[in-house]
């Protein structure tokens, strides 16, 4: 299978070649043909599968082969994304793929001055990448119109709903013509997502990147059982002694992310935190530093990390397990991308036992457990689960500077894969 055989135009093939892609990824091979045929598409794909090119390439093909000379260019394609980072990344892709086409595009999102965005819009754009809030805001101000949209893409629809954007999506839909092509991408398919898909899509073709759990199975996963107060010491030890260079660390709270980041910096590990309370500038800077290697550790919360385009990440660490099992799959999906191997490590204290059990049920496998000498779990700690928003005692206390031997004791090393698949996780979201 080649990009050429999918029927994409020469200028797009040239841009693809410039990017260095040799063959379409599975989601691209499945999604591009129906999109080119003008069909509505419902795609199950998460970040890392190549989904952005999966919708951007055929969208650009359609717009450019159907272009009309107009003095003022109306927005002909709208790509809606949940976060600013994702919007910026999708826009970067649109720019790259349209390099050899006569297509204008721009991106708009909140948290930054609207003036440059308004200026760009006033010159006319064919493709608009946007987050819902700023889009509605600028439409209300009369700065842009969606009345000529031909193609609508809803990216990461599940995260859109998690972030409470349903109302905004419904408002945006009313601003576009009823007759248009719709593409919807989502990593998970809860009841609410299916309902949304029914309301947006018209007789859609359904495509799936890979069966839900395949990615999980190729990632090397490990759990360290550890006392809560010793997690900070353990993570610093793992990163320093392993000499890990590019590590994405997940915490459950923004406060936890800041605190861990400070501690790492004081121990000489370059680190930056990325979460909802950080300004757009700070987030962009942290991400850029992480990508260019000047920041070794990026500490992120789930929402902030969603959609970040960081290819080939060797290490992902869950400083705390997420209480939503699907988030674990999203988190570890950051490693082992595009066929490269990666390692996902979780530091698990007694009160996260239930979360671990739920995750293992979802991914349908037992994760290998280790205990590192000097960082043993607290036998007297309560196994009562942490409630969302609660951040008991995190990173405090005894043993956090223990730099004893790195000998490991393996308590359960067998990856025990059961055959029965548990794919019905709708109620969890
Ligand atoms: P995405 O899932 O859209 O975030 O893409 C994940 C990563 O895969 C990005 O860094 C893309 O540049 C890269 N990518 C997308 N399509 C291909 C392809 N056909 N071959 C190689 N890499 C790709």
Textual characterization of the structure:
This protein has 429 residues and is an alpha/beta fold. It folds into two domains: 4-208, Rossmann fold (3-Layer(aba) Sandwich); 219-392, P-loop containing nucleotide triphosphate hydrolases (Rossmann fold). The chain is 37% helix and 16% strand. The protein is built from 16 helices and 15 strands. The protein has helices spanning 10-19, 26-36, 51-65, 84-97, 115-122, 132-140, 157-162, 166-174, 191-200, 214-218, 231-242, 254-266, 280-292, 302-305, 325-332, 353-363; strands at 41-44, 77-80, 105-108, 127-130, 151-154, 181-186, 205-208, 220-225, 247-250, 271-274, 297-300, 315-318, 343-348, 368-372, 408-412. The strands form two sheets. Strands 10-11-9-12-13-8-14-15 form an eight-stranded mixed beta sheet, sandwiched between helices. Strands 3-4-2-5-6-1-7 form a seven-stranded parallel beta sheet, with helices on both faces. Helix 3 (51-65) crosses helix 4 (84-97) and helix 6 packs across helix 8. The protein is elongated.
């Amino acid at each position: 299978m080649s990009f050429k055989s999918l029927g994409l135009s020469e200028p797009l093939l040239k841009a693809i070649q410039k990017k260095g892609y040799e063959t379409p990824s599975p989601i691209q091979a499945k999604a591009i043909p129906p999109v080119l045929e003008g069909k509505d598409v419902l795609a199950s794909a998460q970040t890392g599968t190549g989904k952005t090119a999966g919708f951007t390439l055929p969208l650009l093909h359609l717009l450019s082969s159907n272009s009309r000379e107009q003095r003022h260019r109306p927005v002909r394609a709208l790509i809606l994304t949940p976060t600013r980072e994702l919007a910026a990344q999708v826009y970067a892709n649109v720019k790259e793929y349209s390099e050899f086409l006569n297509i204008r595009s721009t991106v708009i999102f909140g948290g930054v001055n609207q003036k440059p965005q308004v200026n760009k819009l006033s010159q006319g754009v064919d493709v608009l990448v946007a987050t819902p809030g700023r889009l509605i805001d600028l439409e209300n101000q009369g700065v842009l119109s969606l009345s000529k949209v031909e193609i609508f893409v809803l990216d990461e629809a599940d995260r859109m709903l998690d972030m409470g954007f349903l109302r905004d999506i419904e408002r945006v839909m009313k601003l576009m013509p009823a007759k248009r092509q719709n593409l919807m991408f989502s990593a998970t398919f809860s009841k609410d997502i299916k309902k949304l898909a029914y309301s947006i899509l018209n007789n859609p073709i359904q495509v799936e990147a890979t069966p839900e759990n395949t990615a999980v199975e190729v990632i090397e996963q490990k759990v360290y059982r550890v006392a809560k107060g010793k997690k900070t010491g353990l993570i610093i030890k793992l990163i320093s002694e392993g000499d890990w260079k590019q590590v994405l660390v997940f915490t459950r709270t923004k406060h936890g992310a800041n605190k861990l980041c400070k501690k790492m910096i004081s121990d000489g590990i370059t680190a930056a935190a990325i979460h909802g309370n950080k300004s757009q500038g700070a987030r962009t800077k942290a991400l850029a530093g992480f990508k260019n290697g000047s920041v070794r550790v990026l500490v992120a919360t789930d929402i902030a990390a969603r959609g970040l385009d960081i290819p080939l990440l060797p290490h992902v660490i869950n400083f705390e397990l997420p209480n939503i099992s699907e988030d674990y799959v999203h988190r570890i999906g950051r490693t082992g991308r595009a066929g490269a191997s990666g390692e996902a490590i979780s530091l698990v204290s007694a009160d996260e036992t239930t979360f671990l059990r739920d995750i293992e049920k979802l991914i349908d496998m037992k994760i290998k457990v280790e205990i590192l000498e000097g960082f043993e779990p607290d036998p007297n700690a309560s196994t009562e689960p942490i409630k969302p928003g609660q951040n008991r005692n995190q990173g405090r206390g005894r043993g956090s500077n223990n730099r004893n031997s790195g000998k490991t004791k393996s308590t359960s090393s067998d990856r025990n894969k059961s055959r029965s698949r548990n794919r019905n996780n709708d109620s969890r979201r």
